Amino acid sequence: MTEETAQRFHTERFEDYLRFERGLTATTTSAYAADVLELISFLESEGFASPHGVGLAQLREFVYSLRETGRAASSIRRKISAVRSYFGFLQAEGIIDGDPSELLEGPKARRALPAVLSEAEIESLLESLQGSDPLTLRDRSILELMYATGVRISELIGLRIRDLDLDERLVRVVGKGSKERIVPFGSVALDALLAYLSEARPVLVGDRGEGAGTLYISRRGRPLSRKGAWEIVRRRVQAAGIGKDVTPHTLRHSFATHLLQGGADIAAVQEMLGHADIATTQIYTHLDRGYLTDVHRRYHPRA
Prior knowledge:
Domain Core-binding (CB): 5-91
Subunit structure: Forms a cyclic heterotetrameric complex composed of two molecules of XerC and two molecules of XerD.
Strand content: under 5%
GO molecular function, one term: DNA binding
Distance between the termini: 61 Å
InterPro entries: CB, DNA_brk_join_enz, Integrase-like_cat_sf, Integrase_catalytic, Integrase_recombinase_N, Integrase_SAM-like_N, Recomb_XerD, Tyrosine_recombinase_XerC/XerD
CATH architecture of the largest domain: Orthogonal Bundle
Protein name: Tyrosine recombinase XerC
Structural class: mainly alpha
CATH topology of the largest domain: hpI Integrase, Chain A
C-alpha cells in the first residue's frame, strides 16, 4: 500500500485505534490491518479511492469474493469483524456519516463478556496514585474520571475544559457519531480534577500554549493522544500490581458493571454510556448472575 492510499483510507489512524483504544494485541492488530488492506485492494478494484461512498452492496461483494476463493469460515468471520471495526472507527471519527457494515451478514458467534475489575481492584488502582507532582495529579484525574463516567478513551482525549461543569459535577461528552451526552461524576473525581486543573495542568502547559482549551495535556504540553492515554493506564495498572490484562475500556466496563450491581436502572446506565441500543448495555447484566437473581426476587410477583 502506498503512503497516499494509507492516508486516503486512514489506515494508520485505524491501527492506532485498535491498539490504544480497543487494547488489541499487536498480533490481532496486524491481522485486522491485513484484512482491511485486502478490503481496500478490493474497493480500489471497484473504483473507490477512499471509504466515502462505500455501501453495504460493496461489502457483501467483498464477502462473496472471499467465499469464492475458498476461504475458511473462521477466516471470513475475522475479516468481517475487521471490516466492522474499520467502518465503526471511520464513523466514530466523523470521517464517514454512516456505517455500511452494520447490516453485513456474518456467522453468528457468542459475544464474549467484557473483562472488569472488582471494586477492590479499582480502589487499589486509584489509591496507588499518591503524590503531588504534575504527572501523578494528571494521571489520577484521568483514571478517576474514566471510572466515574465510563467515557471511552477517544472521548476522554477530546474533552475540553469548557465541557466541565464543576459546580454541578457534570461533563459534556461527544461520543460516536458526534452524539453528545451529559454524564455526572462524583466528589472524588471532582477533587482529582480540581487538583489537576489548579496545580498540574498549568505546569504541563507552561508558556507553549499548544494545549489551550484541551483538558488533558502531555508532559510536552500538547493535547494528550490516544496512545499517551493508553500508556498511562497500562503503566499505572502495572505499578499498582494488578495482574489482569487491563485496557482503558476495562474501566468503562467496570463503571457499567458496578452501577448495575449496585442497583442502577439499566436505561440510566445506557444513557451514561452513550449506547444507542439498550441491548448493548444488557451484556453487563450477564457479568453477575446474582444481579439477575436479585432483580427477579425483588420484582417478580411470585418470586
